[in-house]
Amino acid sequence: MNHPKNEWRLEQQRVDRVIREIDRRLTLLNREASGVKSDIVDIRRNFWEDVRVNFSNDVEIHETVASINQQARVLSERERRHQSVQKQIDTLKKLKYSPYFGRIDFTENGEEKEQIYLGIASLIDEQNDEFLIYDWRAPISSLYYDYPPGPARYRTPAGTIEGVIHLKRQFLIRNGLIESLFDTGITIGDELLKEVLGKQSDSQMKSIVATIQKDQNRIIRNEHSRLVVVQGAAGSGKTSAALQRIAYLLYRYRKTLRAENILLFSPNPMFNRYVSTVLPELGEENMQQTTFQELLERRLGKTLALEDPFSQIEYTLTAINEPGYEARMEGIRYKASRKFMELLDRYFSFLEHGKLKFRDIPFRNGTIIPADEIQQHFASLDPSIPLTNRISLLTQRLVAELKQLAKKEEKKTWVEDEIQWLDKSDYIRADQQLLKEKHFTDETFDDTEREQKLLARIVVQKQIKRSIQFVKHLRYLDSLALYRQLFADPDFAGNELGIENLPEQWPAICRQTVAKLDQRKLFYEDATPYLLLKTRLEGIRTNTSIRHVFIDEAQDYSPFQFSFIKRIYPRCKMTILGDFNQAVFAHVPVNNNLNMLSSLYGSEQTEMFELRRSYRSTCPIIRFTRHLVENKDAIEPFERPGEKPTVTEVSKRADLHEQLMGRIDVLKKAGYKTIAVICKTARESRMACEALEKKAPFPVQQIRKETVQYQPGVLVIPVYLAKGIEFDAVIIYDASEKQYSRKNERKLLYTACTRAMHALHIYCLGRMSPFIATAPKDTYMKDNR
Ligand SMILES: Nc1ncnc2c1ncn2[C@@H]1O[C@H](COP(=O)(O)OP(=O)(O)OP(=O)(O)O)[C@@H](O)[C@H]1O
User: Fold this and answer.
1) Of 32, 303, 724, 777, which residue is 20 to 30 A from 602 by alpha carbon distance?
2) For a pocket test of ligand 1, which of 616, 747, 758 has the largest count of ligand atoms closer than 8 A to its C-beta?
3) Ligand 1: does its nearest atom lie under 6 Å from the Cβ of 267?
4) Where ATP is bound, by residue (predicted)?
5) Which residues are annotated as a binding site for ATP?
């Protein structure tokens, strides 16, 4: 819609007025910040002068401690104030650059018309209490995202407010100047969105605050469900909605919720960095981020070498001709399935009525309580007591026994030898103890003997402490041996647990698992089931400080993994986002979907959302990529113009590399900032990178699983590491039928192609993949060389 010049001028005048107000505030806040800062410097410099220090007796010590605490409190109050002022300054600076992005004129029924301007934070004119800017998260702001002009309503804590929107205006303001201004009607084509999406990417994700879509807004503002599940097409804004939702929750619950109470599970370490600028852009601190692998490593400790998911996927894609491959694949799928969960349940019941496995309790270089003695103690406990309670009782008993045994040890000769190696501080401790007991007179025979006894106790305590810790941490319980027992005899599950329908290759799966465990290594697929068994026996260390968990790329998680996360964070709400068309891990069944997640908290506590419209790629790219999946109708393109993807078949690898170089050159000249050559595996990626590096007059970045950050430019990456990330231009290194024709490779190819924002070029060494061949011919341009 065109705007009369006058209208534009009036809006710019308002921007200028708001910026003057921001400047006034900034001057005041900067003054306050420097005052508080000099207070802090003064307090730090004079800390010890202002504290009264006297350690001459108990009363003085007490007063000294109180005085130090008082001074520390003053200091930390000033530091907090400084942080808060600094945060306000940072937000105001962002507002100064771009005060707002939207306006609605709204008449609440029975009230006067109001102009509402939306930005990343609220700003009130202190003279007349007028809202110059409304925070986009304020209740009234939802009108902007939810309705076109016409009747509209929004919810507030006090009830629903109804009225009419007369005008909905979008702005692009940079550096205080209005660059564009659109009024949106009911028409679909969203000019601002087109403009935003048409931009080049860099290596960091952006906030979508100005153009949040209605269906995304429902996810962002959901407050009632314990579990929010989002199934969304590639590029439909799942990650974006998740990050905006975090910002929303931080605003909505600002009195009780902090960024450190929110945890995001990311697909890989590079993704952590990729999304890390979104919340700061909105004036919020970043939530905590982790990967499931990090969680496993923290919980498993260093006792076992754990395979990572990328090594597992690399194996599944490259080891097809190796012996044992089929068994391992079947094992990966089975160990992630509900059937295996049932098997573990039965095994747990079996253990409740049978024997556990124990380790000897160590003391010095030997054993103080052998495993079979622990087994006897355990057998003597009443079997009707629940297993975990019996384990607690056993632990108490063992600790008591260790204390008894320690007394006996004090009399042994090794103790005398060790007394001479004690520290000076141990002698002082013994002397003080004697003094305290008021038995120390002059040098008497009795006192020397008492001192020897005390020193003997100190020697033994130092050693026995380790054994007691060993028991208290339940390391005497050999959970790994119990997990191993499941596989040690392939008939065990059938005969002892009554499990039918074991996988066809169960004996081979058992052999592989045992062989791995005996090397003190753990396949990735064993890690979560093993931890679940371990925690059911030993109890679980829960984390109650986390109140919201977000899981992105959730299609790659198994039911075991969701259960495990739920057990660790028992109090939290969860937001789970995924796309089953991008399930690239071998454990995910081909026809998987996220509906099964409703069983996690029950359907009444769960809300499911679907995002169909894909924003990342141009319309021609989406028209092509949606044919790579089976449910193409669940993907709708956003009308952004661009070139059709190209598909080129070449017969020789040398020609392929030649062609890639030519293509990269054209893309660079066209101004694309991030150009990714996407390979199927890390192995292919290494080879491609070496070949390109030899020819390229520019740097080529090879992305490995350890990579945490990439720079704009040319990069070579295996598809499973590109999850969640996007690039201006994507080149598929080799999409031939050799590479992508099995069922599970369809989703891999779809994931790779959907990383492209503006340009997609597919190369095939030989004939193209059947997944491409079945796409309508008019959705791509074919180029035969
Ligand atoms: N409402 C929106 N306004 C502007 N840009 C948007 C919007 N929604 C999504 N986008 C853009 O679309 C792209 C894809 O978004 P995002 O990465 O959040 O999608 P996704 O569903 O997580 O994708 P994938 O499943 O492929 O990882 C990003 O560049 C994002 O900024």
Assistant:
1) 724
2) 616
3) no
4) 232-239
5) 232-239
560 and 643, same structural domain?
no
Q: Which of 295, 341, 308 is nearest to 536 (CA)?
A: 341
273-285 residue pLDDT tens: 899 989 998 989 9
Q: What is the mean pLDDT of residues 29-38?
A: 90
Distance of CA 499 to the CA centre of its chain: 35
For residues 605 and 677, membership in a common domain is answered with no
**Minimum-distance ligand 1 atom for the alpha carbon of 216:** 1
- Say if ligand 1 is within 6 A of residue 674 CB: no
With the most atoms of ligand 1 within 8 angstroms of its CB, the residue from 136, 172, 200, 239 to mutate is 239
- Per the domain annotation, does 216 fall within a domain? yes
In terms of domains, do 625 and 753 share one? yes
Instruction: Give, to the nearest 10 degrees, the angle between helix 325-335 and helix 309-318.
Output: 140
Distance between Cα 760 and ligand 1 center (Å): 17
State the complex-level ipTM.
0.99
- Is 245 touching ligand 1 by the criterion CB < 6 Å? no
Atom of ligand 1 nearest to the CA of 197: 5
> Is residue 588 domain-shared with residue 686, that is, in the same domain?
no
On the question of pLDDT at 355 being above 90, the answer is no
What one-character-per-residue DSSP string does 25-78 give?
A: HHHHHHHHHHHHHHHHHHHHHTHHHHS----SSHHHHHHHHHHHHHHHHHHHHH
Centre of ligand 1 from the C-alpha of residue 613, in Å? 10
Q: Name the DSSP class of 419.
A: H
Residues 6+ positions from 171 with CB-CB distance below 8 Å: 11, 100, 101, 102, 103, 178, 180, 181
pLDDT in tens, 523-532: 999 999 999 9
Q: Domain total for the chain? A: 4
Q: How far is the CA of 621 from the centre of ligand 1 (A)?
A: 15
In this structure, which long-range contacts are made by residues 585-588, counting pairs with CB atoms below 8 Å and at least 24 apart in sequence? 585/309, 585/312, 585/313, 585/556, 586/312, 586/313, 586/316, 586/329, 586/332, 586/333, 586/744, 587/332, 587/333, 587/335, 587/336, 587/525, 587/558, 588/336, 588/555, 588/556, 588/558
Give the pair of three-digit tokens for residue 777: 């011919």
Determine the residue of 203, 206, 208, 753 to mutate for testing ligand 1's pocket, defined as the one with the most ligand atoms within 8 A of the Cβ atom: 208
Tell me, yes or no, whether 337 lies in a domain: no
**Which H or E element spans position 274?**
helix 269-274
Residue of the CA atom closest to atom 25 of ligand 1: 234
* Nearest atom within ligand 1 for CA of residue 211: 3
Atom of ligand 1 lying closest to residue 196 CA: 4
Q: Which domain holds residue 402?
A: 361-473
CA dihedral 184, 189, 195, 198 (to 10 degrees): 170
